[in-house]
Write a structure and sequence with these properties.
Layout lengths: L1 E3 L13 E3 L2 E3 L6 H21 L7 E6 L2 E7 L5 E6 L5 H15 L5 H14 L1
Antiparallel strand pairs: 1-6, 2-3, 4-5, 5-6
Length: 125
Amino acid sequence: MEPFGPSEGPALLHRPGGRVGGRPSDGPKGSSADLATIVSGIGSLTVGAAKLMDGGGVKQTMVAMDEGSVFVMSISDGSLLGVHATPDCDMSVVAYHMALFVGRAGHVLTPELRSELRKSMESTQ
């Protein structure tokens, strides 16, 4: 799984090694900025759709693709948590752990803290 970007402030991205369909994978193609843009765009589209349909606030969005899935979950401050997962993931487990993370840590992931965490991740690589 690969968590990435909030809609505001610096993206916090982790690219764990793994395998997709028997071949090595470092996550989706593109830069972390591309991934944050995708999450932001999905978030914006779903908020717009919810407004048009008088659906209230958007809690989570999931896009299933042949080669993986993207999950986007709202955090209370308007930020977004995005996860790119492999095609064989258990979607309910991913959604559950995202909800746990947002509930427990979402309120402390300020743009300043995300920037600090990103810098510390870069310095350890």
